[in-house]
Protein backbone atom coordinates (compact mmCIF):
# COMPACT_ATOMS: atom_id res chain seq x y z
CA UNK A 1 0.00 0.00 0.00
CA UNK A 2 1.31 3.44 -0.99
CA UNK A 3 1.15 5.96 1.84
CA UNK A 4 2.49 8.99 -0.06
CA UNK A 5 -0.91 10.73 -0.04
CA UNK A 6 -1.34 10.05 3.68
CA UNK A 7 2.11 11.47 4.46
CA UNK A 8 1.44 14.54 2.35
CA UNK A 9 -1.93 15.05 4.03
CA UNK A 10 -0.38 14.82 7.51
CA UNK A 11 2.32 17.30 6.47
CA UNK A 12 -0.27 19.73 5.08
CA UNK A 13 -2.51 19.51 8.15
CA UNK A 14 0.39 20.17 10.52
CA UNK A 15 1.46 23.07 8.34
CA UNK A 16 -2.05 24.55 8.34
CA UNK A 17 -2.25 24.21 12.13
CA UNK A 18 1.04 26.07 12.50
CA UNK A 19 -0.12 28.74 10.06
CA UNK A 20 -3.39 29.22 11.97
CA UNK A 21 -1.52 29.40 15.26
CA UNK A 22 0.61 32.31 14.08
CA UNK A 23 -2.44 34.03 12.59
CA UNK A 24 -4.18 33.74 15.96
CA UNK A 25 -1.19 35.33 17.71
CA UNK A 26 -0.52 38.17 15.27
CA UNK A 27 -2.29 41.31 16.47
CA UNK A 28 -3.62 42.30 13.01
CA UNK A 29 -5.17 38.90 12.18
CA UNK A 30 -6.01 37.74 15.70
CA UNK A 31 -9.58 39.22 15.71
CA UNK A 32 -10.46 37.30 12.52
CA UNK A 33 -9.33 33.85 13.67
CA UNK A 34 -11.94 31.85 15.55
CA UNK A 35 -10.76 29.88 18.61
CA UNK A 36 -12.64 26.86 17.16
CA UNK A 37 -10.90 26.98 13.79
CA UNK A 38 -8.73 23.93 14.60
CA UNK A 39 -11.79 21.66 14.85
CA UNK A 40 -13.45 22.95 11.64
CA UNK A 41 -12.05 20.34 9.23
CA UNK A 42 -14.05 21.54 6.22
CA UNK A 43 -12.46 24.99 6.45
CA UNK A 44 -9.03 23.52 7.16
CA UNK A 45 -9.24 21.54 3.92
CA UNK A 46 -9.82 24.77 2.02
CA UNK A 47 -6.87 26.35 3.83
CA UNK A 48 -4.55 23.63 2.52
CA UNK A 49 -4.38 25.27 -0.94
CA UNK A 50 -3.56 28.62 0.62
CA UNK A 51 -0.90 26.96 2.76
CA UNK A 52 0.71 25.28 -0.25
CA UNK A 53 0.89 28.56 -2.17
CA UNK A 54 2.38 30.33 0.87
CA UNK A 55 4.85 27.45 1.34
CA UNK A 56 6.11 27.89 -2.23
CA UNK A 57 6.42 31.66 -1.74
CA UNK A 58 8.19 31.09 1.58
CA UNK A 59 10.60 28.64 -0.08
CA UNK A 60 11.60 31.16 -2.76
CA UNK A 61 11.81 34.07 -0.30
CA UNK A 62 13.97 32.15 2.19
CA UNK A 63 16.36 31.00 -0.53
CA UNK A 64 16.54 34.53 -1.92
CA UNK A 65 17.37 36.06 1.46
CA UNK A 66 19.86 33.28 2.13
CA UNK A 67 21.73 34.24 -1.03
CA UNK A 68 21.60 37.90 0.03
CA UNK A 69 23.11 36.94 3.39
CA UNK A 70 25.91 35.03 1.64
CA UNK A 71 26.52 38.03 -0.63
CA UNK A 72 26.66 40.34 2.38
CA UNK A 73 29.15 38.09 4.22
CA UNK A 74 31.29 37.77 1.09
CA UNK A 75 31.34 41.55 0.50
CA UNK A 76 32.23 42.16 4.18
CA UNK A 77 35.04 39.60 3.95
CA UNK A 78 36.23 41.19 0.70
CA UNK A 79 36.39 44.65 2.33
CA UNK A 80 38.25 43.23 5.33
CA UNK A 81 40.81 41.47 3.14
CA UNK A 82 41.43 44.60 1.06
CA UNK A 83 42.21 46.56 4.23
CA UNK A 84 44.96 44.09 5.17
CA UNK A 85 47.96 44.56 2.93
CA UNK A 86 49.71 41.27 3.76
CA UNK A 87 47.03 39.38 1.79
CA UNK A 88 48.18 41.05 -1.43
CA UNK A 89 51.19 38.75 -1.82
CA UNK A 90 49.42 35.57 -0.73
CA UNK A 91 48.82 32.45 -2.80
CA UNK A 92 45.08 33.08 -2.73
CA UNK A 93 43.05 34.53 -5.58
CA UNK A 94 41.13 37.18 -3.65
CA UNK A 95 38.91 38.78 -6.27
CA UNK A 96 35.30 39.52 -5.26
CA UNK A 97 33.77 36.85 -7.51
CA UNK A 98 36.06 34.16 -6.13
CA UNK A 99 35.34 35.16 -2.52
CA UNK A 100 31.58 35.06 -3.17
CA UNK A 101 31.74 31.55 -4.62
CA UNK A 102 34.05 30.31 -1.86
CA UNK A 103 31.80 31.62 0.93
CA UNK A 104 28.71 30.19 -0.76
CA UNK A 105 30.34 26.79 -1.31
CA UNK A 106 31.48 26.60 2.33
CA UNK A 107 27.97 27.39 3.59
CA UNK A 108 26.55 24.82 1.15
CA UNK A 109 28.74 22.11 2.68
CA UNK A 110 27.90 23.14 6.24
CA UNK A 111 24.17 23.11 5.41
CA UNK A 112 24.26 19.65 3.81
CA UNK A 113 26.71 17.97 6.13
CA UNK A 114 24.18 15.40 7.34
CA UNK A 115 21.07 13.73 5.97
CA UNK A 116 18.03 16.00 5.93
CA UNK A 117 15.65 13.15 5.12
CA UNK A 118 16.62 11.31 8.31
CA UNK A 119 16.46 14.35 10.59
CA UNK A 120 13.73 14.61 13.22
CA UNK A 121 10.46 16.35 12.39
CA UNK A 122 6.98 16.28 13.88
CA UNK A 123 5.57 14.94 10.60
CA UNK A 124 7.95 11.96 10.58
CA UNK A 125 7.33 11.20 14.24
CA UNK A 126 3.56 11.28 13.71
CA UNK A 127 3.76 9.10 10.58
CA UNK A 128 6.03 6.52 12.20
CA UNK A 129 4.67 6.23 15.72
CA UNK A 130 0.98 7.15 15.39
CA UNK A 131 0.01 6.08 11.86
CA UNK A 132 2.52 3.18 11.68
CA UNK A 133 3.56 4.08 8.14
CA UNK A 134 6.59 2.05 6.97
CA UNK A 135 9.88 3.76 7.66
CA UNK A 136 11.19 3.44 4.11
CA UNK A 137 8.11 5.19 2.70
CA UNK A 138 8.50 8.07 5.14
CA UNK A 139 12.16 8.34 4.15
CA UNK A 140 11.36 8.31 0.42
CA UNK A 141 8.68 10.98 0.89
CA UNK A 142 11.23 13.14 2.71
CA UNK A 143 13.70 12.60 -0.11
CA UNK A 144 11.13 13.83 -2.63
CA UNK A 145 10.53 17.03 -0.61
CA UNK A 146 14.29 17.61 -0.40
CA UNK A 147 14.57 16.99 -4.15
CA UNK A 148 12.01 19.73 -4.86
CA UNK A 149 13.76 22.07 -2.43
CA UNK A 150 17.13 21.49 -4.11
CA UNK A 151 15.70 22.11 -7.60
CA UNK A 152 14.35 25.48 -6.46
CA UNK A 153 17.63 26.33 -4.77
CA UNK A 154 19.68 25.27 -7.79
CA UNK A 155 17.63 27.58 -10.03
CA UNK A 156 18.14 30.52 -7.64
CA UNK A 157 21.88 29.76 -7.40
CA UNK A 158 22.21 29.55 -11.18
CA UNK A 159 20.59 32.91 -11.82
CA UNK A 160 22.36 34.50 -8.82
CA UNK A 161 25.81 33.66 -10.22
CA UNK A 162 24.76 34.67 -13.72
CA UNK A 163 23.55 38.08 -12.50
CA UNK A 164 26.01 38.77 -9.64
CA UNK A 165 29.08 36.83 -10.77
CA UNK A 166 28.42 37.25 -14.50
CA UNK A 167 29.96 33.85 -15.04
CA UNK A 168 28.22 30.90 -16.69
CA UNK A 169 30.91 28.38 -15.57
CA UNK A 170 30.45 29.42 -11.92
CA UNK A 171 26.65 29.20 -12.27
CA UNK A 172 26.91 25.72 -13.78
CA UNK A 173 29.39 24.64 -11.09
CA UNK A 174 27.00 25.95 -8.43
CA UNK A 175 24.15 23.76 -9.74
CA UNK A 176 26.41 20.68 -9.82
CA UNK A 177 27.63 21.33 -6.27
CA UNK A 178 24.03 21.70 -5.02
CA UNK A 179 23.14 18.31 -6.50
CA UNK A 180 26.29 16.60 -5.20
CA UNK A 181 26.12 17.86 -1.61
CA UNK A 182 22.46 16.82 -1.42
CA UNK A 183 23.57 13.29 -2.34
CA UNK A 184 26.64 13.50 -0.10
CA UNK A 185 24.61 14.36 3.01
CA UNK A 186 22.38 11.31 2.61
CA UNK A 187 24.96 8.67 1.72
CA UNK A 188 27.61 9.84 4.17
CA UNK A 189 25.16 9.70 7.10
CA UNK A 190 24.02 6.17 6.17
CA UNK A 191 27.61 4.97 5.68
CA UNK A 192 28.82 6.38 8.98
CA UNK A 193 25.87 4.94 10.90
CA UNK A 194 26.39 1.53 9.27
CA UNK A 195 30.08 1.54 10.18
CA UNK A 196 29.87 2.86 13.75
CA UNK A 197 26.31 1.84 14.70
CA UNK A 198 25.63 5.35 16.02
CA UNK A 199 25.47 8.96 14.94
CA UNK A 200 28.47 11.27 14.97
CA UNK A 201 29.52 12.69 18.31
CA UNK A 202 29.50 16.44 18.74
CA UNK A 203 33.31 16.60 18.84
CA UNK A 204 33.67 14.54 15.68
CA UNK A 205 30.99 16.59 13.91
CA UNK A 206 32.69 19.85 14.82
CA UNK A 207 36.17 18.65 13.87
CA UNK A 208 35.11 17.20 10.54
CA UNK A 209 33.02 20.25 9.66
CA UNK A 210 35.87 22.67 10.44
CA UNK A 211 38.43 20.57 8.55
CA UNK A 212 36.42 20.07 5.38
CA UNK A 213 34.91 23.56 5.30
CA UNK A 214 38.41 25.11 5.60
CA UNK A 215 39.68 22.81 2.83
CA UNK A 216 36.78 23.70 0.53
CA UNK A 217 37.14 27.41 1.27
CA UNK A 218 40.90 27.52 0.67
CA UNK A 219 40.79 25.31 -2.44
CA UNK A 220 38.15 27.49 -4.07
CA UNK A 221 40.19 30.61 -3.22
CA UNK A 222 43.49 29.21 -4.51
CA UNK A 223 45.21 30.68 -7.57
CA UNK A 224 44.87 27.43 -9.51
CA UNK A 225 43.20 27.71 -12.89
CA UNK A 226 39.39 27.83 -12.51
CA UNK A 227 38.84 24.94 -14.95
CA UNK A 228 41.55 22.89 -13.21
CA UNK A 229 39.90 23.41 -9.81
CA UNK A 230 36.52 22.49 -11.25
CA UNK A 231 37.99 19.39 -12.94
CA UNK A 232 39.55 18.27 -9.64
CA UNK A 233 36.24 18.79 -7.83
CA UNK A 234 34.24 17.02 -10.55
CA UNK A 235 36.57 14.00 -10.63
CA UNK A 236 36.44 13.78 -6.82
CA UNK A 237 32.64 13.89 -6.86
CA UNK A 238 32.39 11.20 -9.57
CA UNK A 239 34.81 8.92 -7.73
CA UNK A 240 32.87 9.39 -4.49
CA UNK A 241 29.55 8.57 -6.19
CA UNK A 242 30.96 5.48 -7.95
CA UNK A 243 32.45 4.27 -4.67
CA UNK A 244 29.36 4.87 -2.55
CA UNK A 245 26.44 4.19 -4.90
CA UNK A 246 26.50 0.41 -4.43
CA UNK A 247 26.67 0.81 -0.65
CA UNK A 248 23.79 3.30 -0.76
CA UNK A 249 21.49 0.85 -2.54
CA UNK A 250 22.34 -1.87 -0.05
CA UNK A 251 21.93 0.33 3.01
CA UNK A 252 18.61 1.86 1.91
CA UNK A 253 16.54 -0.93 3.46
CA UNK A 254 13.48 -0.64 5.66
CA UNK A 255 15.22 -2.18 8.70
CA UNK A 256 18.26 0.09 8.50
CA UNK A 257 16.20 3.25 7.92
CA UNK A 258 13.97 2.16 10.81
CA UNK A 259 16.98 1.93 13.17
CA UNK A 260 18.33 5.36 12.24
CA UNK A 261 14.97 7.15 12.37
CA UNK A 262 14.01 5.70 15.75
CA UNK A 263 17.38 6.73 17.18
CA UNK A 264 17.05 10.24 15.71
CA UNK A 265 13.57 10.59 17.25
CA UNK A 266 14.88 9.46 20.64
CA UNK A 267 17.86 11.80 20.39
CA UNK A 268 15.55 14.70 19.47
CA UNK A 269 13.22 13.96 22.39
CA UNK A 270 16.17 13.77 24.79
CA UNK A 271 17.61 17.00 23.39
CA UNK A 272 14.28 18.82 23.76
CA UNK A 273 13.99 17.60 27.35
CA UNK A 274 17.59 18.65 28.08
CA UNK A 275 17.12 22.09 26.54
CA UNK A 276 13.88 22.55 28.45
CA UNK A 277 15.56 21.61 31.72
CA UNK A 278 18.56 23.84 31.00
CA UNK A 279 16.34 26.81 30.15
CA UNK A 280 14.75 26.47 33.59
CA UNK A 281 18.02 25.66 35.36
CA UNK A 282 19.84 28.82 34.31
CA UNK A 283 17.17 31.01 35.92
CA UNK A 284 16.93 29.18 39.24
CA UNK A 285 17.30 31.00 42.54
CA UNK A 286 20.79 30.84 44.10
CA UNK A 287 21.14 28.16 46.77
CA UNK A 288 23.80 30.16 48.60
CA UNK A 289 22.33 33.51 49.62
CA UNK A 290 24.15 36.46 51.13
CA UNK A 291 21.88 36.92 54.14
CA UNK A 292 23.63 40.04 55.41
CA UNK A 293 23.26 41.77 52.04
CA UNK A 294 19.60 40.77 51.89
CA UNK A 295 18.98 42.23 55.34
CA UNK A 296 20.83 45.44 54.49
CA UNK A 297 18.30 46.13 51.72
CA UNK A 298 15.64 46.56 54.41
CA UNK A 299 17.30 49.79 55.54
CA UNK A 300 18.62 50.91 52.14
CA UNK A 301 15.38 50.64 50.17
CA UNK A 302 11.70 50.04 50.49
CA UNK A 303 8.69 48.96 48.47
CA UNK A 304 9.35 47.58 45.00
CA UNK A 305 12.93 48.85 45.03
CA UNK A 306 13.52 46.55 48.00
CA UNK A 307 11.79 43.72 46.14
CA UNK A 308 13.97 44.23 43.05
CA UNK A 309 17.21 44.55 45.01
CA UNK A 310 16.40 41.40 46.95
CA UNK A 311 15.58 39.60 43.69
CA UNK A 312 18.92 40.59 42.11
CA UNK A 313 20.77 39.44 45.23
CA UNK A 314 19.03 36.05 45.14
CA UNK A 315 19.91 35.63 41.42
CA UNK A 316 23.51 36.79 41.45
CA UNK A 317 24.82 33.84 39.42
CA UNK A 318 22.50 34.79 36.55
CA UNK A 319 24.05 38.20 36.04
CA UNK A 320 27.22 38.51 38.14
CA UNK A 321 29.16 35.49 36.89
CA UNK A 322 28.45 36.14 33.15
CA UNK A 323 29.30 39.79 33.75
CA UNK A 324 32.67 38.84 35.26
CA UNK A 325 33.42 36.43 32.41
CA UNK A 326 32.45 38.98 29.76
CA UNK A 327 34.53 41.71 31.41
CA UNK A 328 37.51 39.35 31.68
CA UNK A 329 37.26 38.37 28.00
CA UNK A 330 37.03 42.01 26.93
CA UNK A 331 40.00 42.87 29.16
CA UNK A 332 42.13 39.98 27.83
CA UNK A 333 41.33 40.74 24.20
CA UNK A 334 41.99 44.45 24.70
CA UNK A 335 45.35 43.67 26.37
CA UNK A 336 46.30 41.51 23.39
CA UNK A 337 45.43 44.28 20.95
CA UNK A 338 47.30 46.84 23.05
CA UNK A 339 50.42 44.67 23.00
CA UNK A 340 50.10 44.26 19.23
CA UNK A 341 49.66 47.99 18.81
CA UNK A 342 52.72 48.67 20.98
CA UNK A 343 54.76 46.24 18.87
CA UNK A 344 53.66 47.93 15.64
CA UNK A 345 54.33 51.42 16.98
CA UNK A 346 57.68 50.89 18.68
CA UNK A 347 59.41 47.70 17.55
CA UNK A 348 58.57 46.87 13.94
CA UNK A 349 59.01 49.89 11.63
CA UNK A 350 57.66 47.98 8.63
CA UNK A 351 54.43 47.05 10.43
CA UNK A 352 53.99 50.65 11.51
CA UNK A 353 53.14 51.53 7.91
CA UNK A 354 49.88 49.65 8.34
CA UNK A 355 48.57 52.38 10.61
CA UNK A 356 49.50 55.10 8.14
CA UNK A 357 48.32 58.47 9.29
CA UNK A 358 45.74 57.14 11.72
CA UNK A 359 42.85 56.52 9.34
CA UNK A 360 43.64 52.84 8.98
CA UNK A 361 44.00 52.57 12.75
CA UNK A 362 40.56 54.08 13.29
CA UNK A 363 39.01 51.68 10.79
CA UNK A 364 40.72 48.77 12.57
CA UNK A 365 39.49 49.61 16.06
CA UNK A 366 36.02 50.36 14.73
CA UNK A 367 36.05 46.92 13.13
CA UNK A 368 37.08 45.26 16.39
CA UNK A 369 34.52 47.26 18.31
CA UNK A 370 31.83 46.08 15.90
CA UNK A 371 32.97 42.55 16.74
CA UNK A 372 32.74 43.45 20.42
CA UNK A 373 29.19 44.76 20.00
CA UNK A 374 28.16 41.58 18.19
CA UNK A 375 29.80 39.48 20.89
CA UNK A 376 28.14 41.55 23.59
CA UNK A 377 24.78 41.26 21.82
CA UNK A 378 24.96 37.46 21.73
CA UNK A 379 26.25 37.17 25.30
CA UNK A 380 23.91 39.81 26.67
CA UNK A 381 22.17 38.72 29.88
CA UNK A 382 19.21 41.10 29.57
CA UNK A 383 16.92 38.42 28.17
CA UNK A 384 18.05 35.88 30.74
CA UNK A 385 17.21 38.31 33.57
CA UNK A 386 13.72 38.95 32.19
CA UNK A 387 13.20 35.18 32.02
CA UNK A 388 14.20 34.94 35.67
CA UNK A 389 11.79 37.77 36.51
CA UNK A 390 9.00 35.83 34.85
CA UNK A 391 9.57 32.30 36.11
CA UNK A 392 10.68 33.12 39.67
CA UNK A 393 8.52 36.12 40.51
CA UNK A 394 6.05 37.54 38.02
CA UNK A 395 4.33 34.33 36.91
CA UNK A 396 3.12 33.61 40.43
CA UNK A 397 2.44 37.23 41.45
CA UNK A 398 0.47 38.01 38.28
CA UNK A 399 -2.23 35.62 39.49
CA UNK A 400 -3.07 38.26 42.12
CA UNK A 401 -5.02 41.34 41.11
CA UNK A 402 -2.92 43.81 43.13
CA UNK A 403 0.18 42.93 41.07
CA UNK A 404 -1.66 43.73 37.81
CA UNK A 405 -2.55 47.28 38.85
CA UNK A 406 -1.25 50.06 36.63
CA UNK A 407 0.63 51.85 39.42
CA UNK A 408 2.26 48.66 40.72
CA UNK A 409 3.46 47.57 37.26
CA UNK A 410 4.84 51.02 36.50
CA UNK A 411 6.79 51.33 39.76
CA UNK A 412 8.16 47.83 39.37
CA UNK A 413 9.27 48.66 35.83
CA UNK A 414 11.09 51.84 36.94
CA UNK A 415 12.94 49.91 39.60
CA UNK A 416 14.02 47.24 37.15
CA UNK A 417 15.11 49.79 34.52
CA UNK A 418 17.79 51.09 36.91
CA UNK A 419 19.23 47.61 37.45
CA UNK A 420 19.24 46.77 33.74
CA UNK A 421 21.12 49.98 32.88
CA UNK A 422 23.76 49.45 35.59
CA UNK A 423 24.45 45.91 34.42
CA UNK A 424 24.79 47.01 30.80
CA UNK A 425 27.60 49.53 31.23
CA UNK A 426 30.20 47.46 33.13
CA UNK A 427 31.89 45.64 30.17
CA UNK A 428 31.88 48.85 28.10
CA UNK A 429 33.78 50.69 30.85
CA UNK A 430 36.64 48.21 30.41
CA UNK A 431 36.78 48.75 26.66
CA UNK A 432 36.55 52.52 27.13
CA UNK A 433 39.74 52.53 29.22
CA UNK A 434 41.59 50.73 26.44
CA UNK A 435 40.18 53.01 23.76
CA UNK A 436 41.66 55.95 25.66
CA UNK A 437 45.01 54.11 25.92
CA UNK A 438 44.95 53.46 22.17
CA UNK A 439 44.28 57.14 21.59
CA UNK A 440 47.39 58.03 23.60
CA UNK A 441 49.43 55.50 21.62
CA UNK A 442 48.14 56.83 18.28
CA UNK A 443 47.76 60.60 18.74
CA UNK A 444 46.88 61.09 15.07
CA UNK A 445 43.44 59.52 15.63
CA UNK A 446 40.53 61.95 15.99
CA UNK A 447 39.63 62.90 19.59
CA UNK A 448 36.08 63.85 18.64
CA UNK A 449 35.51 60.53 16.88
CA UNK A 450 36.83 58.67 19.91
CA UNK A 451 34.63 60.61 22.35
CA UNK A 452 31.58 60.08 20.12
CA UNK A 453 32.31 56.38 19.83
CA UNK A 454 32.71 55.89 23.60
CA UNK A 455 29.36 57.59 24.27
CA UNK A 456 27.73 55.41 21.60
CA UNK A 457 29.10 52.26 23.22
CA UNK A 458 27.57 53.18 26.56
CA UNK A 459 24.23 54.00 24.95
CA UNK A 460 24.05 50.79 22.92
CA UNK A 461 25.02 48.60 25.88
CA UNK A 462 22.35 50.21 28.08
CA UNK A 463 19.83 49.98 25.26
CA UNK A 464 20.23 46.19 24.95
CA UNK A 465 19.04 45.50 28.49
CA UNK A 466 16.38 48.21 28.45
CA UNK A 467 14.89 46.89 25.23
CA UNK A 468 14.53 43.34 26.54
CA UNK A 469 12.84 44.63 29.67
CA UNK A 470 10.51 46.92 27.72
CA UNK A 471 9.47 44.14 25.32
CA UNK A 472 8.94 41.84 28.30
CA UNK A 473 6.41 44.23 29.85
CA UNK A 474 4.71 45.24 26.63
CA UNK A 475 4.49 41.83 24.88
CA UNK A 476 4.79 39.20 27.67
CA UNK A 477 6.59 36.86 25.25
CA UNK A 478 7.45 33.95 27.57
CA UNK A 479 5.49 30.90 28.67
CA UNK A 480 6.27 28.49 31.50
CA UNK A 481 8.88 26.73 29.34
CA UNK A 482 10.45 30.16 28.70
CA UNK A 483 9.69 29.86 24.99
CA UNK A 484 9.32 33.18 23.18
CA UNK A 485 6.88 32.66 20.29
CA UNK A 486 5.87 36.30 19.97
CA UNK A 487 6.47 37.45 16.38
CA UNK A 488 6.98 41.17 17.27
CA UNK A 489 9.44 40.17 20.01
CA UNK A 490 11.56 38.04 17.68
CA UNK A 491 11.37 40.65 14.91
CA UNK A 492 12.65 43.31 17.30
CA UNK A 493 15.65 41.09 18.12
CA UNK A 494 16.43 40.69 14.42
CA UNK A 495 16.19 44.45 13.82
CA UNK A 496 18.58 45.16 16.70
CA UNK A 497 21.02 42.55 15.38
CA UNK A 498 20.98 44.11 11.91
CA UNK A 499 21.58 47.56 13.39
CA UNK A 500 24.52 46.37 15.49
CA UNK A 501 26.07 44.52 12.57
CA UNK A 502 25.86 47.57 10.31
CA UNK A 503 26.51 50.25 12.92
CA UNK A 504 30.26 50.81 12.58
CA UNK A 505 30.06 53.35 9.75
CA UNK A 506 27.36 55.30 11.55
CA UNK A 507 29.25 55.20 14.85
CA UNK A 508 32.36 56.52 13.10
CA UNK A 509 30.66 59.85 12.42
CA UNK A 510 31.65 62.56 14.94
CA UNK A 511 28.07 63.76 15.50
CA UNK A 512 26.57 60.29 15.84
CA UNK A 513 26.64 60.38 19.66
CA UNK A 514 24.15 63.29 19.58
CA UNK A 515 21.65 61.26 17.55
CA UNK A 516 22.21 58.17 19.68
CA UNK A 517 21.78 60.13 22.92
CA UNK A 518 18.54 61.70 21.71
CA UNK A 519 17.32 58.30 20.52
CA UNK A 520 18.10 56.60 23.83
CA UNK A 521 16.45 59.32 25.92
CA UNK A 522 13.34 59.27 23.73
CA UNK A 523 13.22 55.47 23.74
CA UNK A 524 13.52 55.38 27.53
CA UNK A 525 10.77 57.97 27.97
CA UNK A 526 8.52 56.22 25.45
CA UNK A 527 9.04 52.89 27.19
CA UNK A 528 8.08 54.42 30.55
CA UNK A 529 5.00 56.10 29.08
CA UNK A 530 3.85 53.02 27.14
CA UNK A 531 4.34 50.75 30.14
CA UNK A 532 2.32 53.22 32.19
CA UNK A 533 -0.52 53.29 29.62
CA UNK A 534 -0.69 49.70 28.34
CA UNK A 535 1.28 47.27 30.50
CA UNK A 536 -1.66 46.59 32.82
CA UNK A 537 -3.39 45.10 29.75
CA UNK A 538 -0.42 43.34 28.15
CA UNK A 539 1.69 42.26 31.14
CA UNK A 540 0.20 38.87 31.95
CA UNK A 541 1.15 35.25 32.58
CA UNK A 542 1.13 32.43 30.04
CA UNK A 543 1.13 28.74 30.80
Descriptive overview:
With 543 residues, the protein is mainly alpha-helical. Helix content is 79%, strand content 0%. The protein has helices at residues 4-25, 41-82, 96-111, 122-130, 135-165, 168-196, 202-221, 226-251, 254-281, 291-300, 303-314, 316-346, 349-352, 359-378, 382-397, 406-441, 447-475, 487-501, 504-507, 512-538. Helix 2 crosses helix 3, helix 12 (316-346) runs parallel beside helix 16 and helix 16 (406-441) packs antiparallel against helix 20 (512-538). The radius of gyration is 28 Å and the shape is globular.
Q: What's the short version?
A:
With 543 residues, this protein is mainly α. It has helices at 4-25, 41-82, 96-111, 122-130, 135-165, 168-196, 202-221, 226-251, 254-281, 291-300, 303-314, 316-346, 349-352, 359-378, 382-397, 406-441, 447-475, 487-501, 504-507, 512-538.
